């Protein structure tokens, strides 16, 4: 692929002329989706769309570090487009508790941590918590809280995020989803206590960024992304360590009926869209 890319740069292929004229005007060039659409126009465009120089700018600046972190070994002769496609898959790592991928349309890095990758107070006592299978999770299971007095969940992640601003969320649902006669139902029988006091969220990064917020959990039967906070990454060659938590430790009442799926990290520009899911 590298040979093809270098040859095409000096070629008169209409795709290359179009791409170079676009980028020479100070633009970033067509995005991944536009490149794939252009490739459908004819054979010349399709061949040129595989050129390394076209896809190099679409990959994160530290993509090689990302490969080492979440993919491992790749075939030596993969072109940049093939590397991009591989990183766009939900790559599972850290014992199956984490997934990372690139957004296909933008090349932005996204990350998800399963409930099994978090520290949950009381998780080993089945009177309080259970892991239940579900098709509504990327990890095929969620942690379900029956009832507890002291509610606390925390975790941490050390990951080579590319430069940018990111938002961290807990993905939660009040009630337990069930399938009955092919239709989704949500059992809210055990939902209680979340209207008494708000849940407190915190985020702290290794370079001292800190945010805290609180809100009441509501909207039973629907998965919601509860925003914990934002953080900024400046150096792509340094891994960012993040600690995060949510808690409601007022022991004057119990709370229960909560499904905890995961913690997700997305570029902050997706924040409003996640809130609407």
From TrEMBL:
Origin superkingdom: Eukaryota
InterPro entries xref list: PP2-like
Protein name, as recorded: F-box protein PP2-A12-like
């Amino acid at each position: 692929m590298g040979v093809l890319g270098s040859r095409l740069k000096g070629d008169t292929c209409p795709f290359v002329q179009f791409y170079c004229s676009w980028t020479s005007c100070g633009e970033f060039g067509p995005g991944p989706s536009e490149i794939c659409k252009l490739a459908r126009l004819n054979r010349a465009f399709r061949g040129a769309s595989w050129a390394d120089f076209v896809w190099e700018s679409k990959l994160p600046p530290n993509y090689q570090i990302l490969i080492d972190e979440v993919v491992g070994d790749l075939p030596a002769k993969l072109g940049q487009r093939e590397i991009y496609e591989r990183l766009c898959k939900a790559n599972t790592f850290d014992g199956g508790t984490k997934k990372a991928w690139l957004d296909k349309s933008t090349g932005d890095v996204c990350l998800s941590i399963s409930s099994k990758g978090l520290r949950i107070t009381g998780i080993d006592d089945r009177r309080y918590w259970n892991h239940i299978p579900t098709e509504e999770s990327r990890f095929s299971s969620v942690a379900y809280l029956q009832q507890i007095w002291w509610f606390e969940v925390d975790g941490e992640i050390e990951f080579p995020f590319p430069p940018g601003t990111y938002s961290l969320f807990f993905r939660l649902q009040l009630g337990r989803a069930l399938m009955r006669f092919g239709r989704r139902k949500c059992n809210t029988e055990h939902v209680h206590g979340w209207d008494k006091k708000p849940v407190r969220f915190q985020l702290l990064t290794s370079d001292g960024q800190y945010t805290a917020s609180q809100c009441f959990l509501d909207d039973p039967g629907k998965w919601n992304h509860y925003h914990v906070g934002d953080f900024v990454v400046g150096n792509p060659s340094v891994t960012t360590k993040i600690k995060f938590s949510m808690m409601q430790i007022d022991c004057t009442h119990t709370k229960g009926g909560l499904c905890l799926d995961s913690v997700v990290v997305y570029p902050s520009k997706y924040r409003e869209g996640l809130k609407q899911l």
